[in-house]
């Protein structure tokens, strides 16, 4: 929103738009054309220009309410400032020094503050800051900073931090050392977790391989044959895998069938029912379920 603007809603149509106010007169959003009321006529010569006073847009002739003022610039600005103030207040609780970039030539680092501090506090650290802007500047106070960082920055973060910690603005747990230590610990923790996960996966896979070998051995002597639908679909052991090209086991009271299911084509091998083999198969799939957790 711009200065002198108000946000309005046209009562008849419900459309929302902006008007510009100049000397109590009402203009369109760009401040070019006056807004008229047609109570006295439909031409620029005969229509009545609308006015703005006491927070209301009105026609001085008919006083009929044609637009509702939703928000003035001042209200908008107050709300915006308040929102920003609150946000900054939250950020201030967590004030710390942030690295904002480095010089492309020599790698010198630039630092800023994570939140805006009060002017009185600013004066305590101001000497360590310079205002950097991109490109040339004629002012002597300003430096030519062809690298990326801009704004109020310091290249002496330790001094700034010491002052702000001393003033109670940066909490001990938010110093650069404390933060990098915390980050390092988090990194280590993540690496440890990853290592553990990989180790656990490998352990499970190894177990599964051994069990699979054991199961396979018991099927070695049997001959491969094509299977009927009944043999593959009943007691379908591991439905989570779906039905395509998947190795499954069909277990009945009399036999255990190891089947490969490739769409319409099913073939497999079978052995007489054995409780030991059933348990091995169950263990195999239980381990497989567990593997999904890692
Ligand atoms: Zn009117």
The averaged pLDDT comes out at 87
* Total E-strand runs: 17
Question: Hetero groups bound?
Answer: zinc ion
The class by helix and strand makeup works out as alpha+beta
What helical percentage do the residues reach? 25-40%
Number of domains: 3
Q: What does the overall shape look like?
A: flat
Distance between the termini: 52 Å
Task: Summarize the topology.
Layout: E1 5-10, E2 16-22, E3 25-27, E4 36-37, E5 48-49, E6 51-53, E7 56-58, E8 67-72, H1 73-93, E9 97-102, E10 109-113, H2 119-125, E11 129-134, E12 143-145, E13 151-154, H3 157-166, H4 176-219, E14 225-226, H5 229-233, E15 244-251, E16 255-262, E17 265-272, H6 275-291
Parallel strand pairs: 11-12
Antiparallel strand pairs: 1-2, 1-8, 2-3, 4-5, 6-7, 9-10, 11-13, 14-17, 15-16, 16-17
Structural summary, described in words:
- This protein is α+β, with helices and mostly antiparallel strands.
- It contains 6 helices and 17 strands.
- The protein has 3 domains: 5-76, Intramolecular trans-sialidase, domain 3; 94-173, no CATH class; 194-291, no CATH class.
- It has helices at 73-93, 119-125, 157-166, 176-219, 229-233, 275-291; strands at residues 5-10, 16-22, 25-27, 36-37, 48-49, 51-53, 56-58, 67-72, 97-102, 109-113, 129-134, 143-145, 151-154, 225-226, 244-251, 255-262, 265-272.
- A 4-stranded antiparallel β-sheet has the order 3-2-1-8.
- The structure holds zinc ion.
- The site of zinc ion has 7 residues, from loops.
């Amino acid at each position: 929103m711009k200065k002198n603007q108000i946000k309005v809603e046209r009562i008849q149509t419900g459309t929302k738009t902006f008007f510009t106010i100049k000397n109590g007169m009402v203009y369109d959003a760009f401040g070019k054309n006056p807004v008229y009321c047609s109570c006295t006529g439909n031409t620029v010569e005969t229509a009545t220009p609308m006015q703005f006073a006491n927070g209301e847009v009105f026609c001085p002739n008919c006083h009929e309410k044609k637009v509702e003022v939703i928000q003035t610039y001042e209200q908008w600005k107050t709300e915006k400032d308040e929102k920003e103030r609150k946000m900054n207040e939250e950020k201030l609780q967590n004030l710390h020094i942030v690295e904002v970039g480095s010089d492309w030539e020599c790698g010198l680092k630039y630092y800023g503050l994570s939140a805006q501090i009060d002017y009185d506090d600013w004066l305590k650290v101001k000497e360590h800051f310079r205002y950097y802007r991109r490109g040339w500047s004629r002012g002597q106070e300003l430096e030519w900073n062809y690298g990326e960082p801009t704004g109020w920055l310091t290249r002496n973060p330790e001094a700034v931090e010491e002052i702000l910690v001393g003033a109670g603005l940066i909490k001990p747990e938010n110093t650069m050392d404390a933060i990098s230590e915390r980050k390092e610990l988090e990194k280590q923790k993540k690496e440890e977790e990853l290592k553990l996960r990989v180790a656990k996966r490998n352990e499970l896979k190894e177990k599964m391989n051994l069990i699979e070998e054991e199961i396979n051995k018991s099927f070695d002597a049997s001959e491969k044959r094509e299977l009927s639908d009944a043999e593959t679909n009943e007691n379908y052991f591991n439905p989570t895998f779906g039905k395509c090209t998947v190795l499954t086991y069909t277990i009945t009271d009399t036999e255990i069938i190891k089947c490969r299911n490739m769409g319409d084509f099913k073939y497999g091998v079978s052995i007489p029912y054995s409780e030991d083999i059933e348990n091995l198969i169950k263990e195999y799939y239980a381990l497989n379920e567990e593997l999904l957790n890692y």
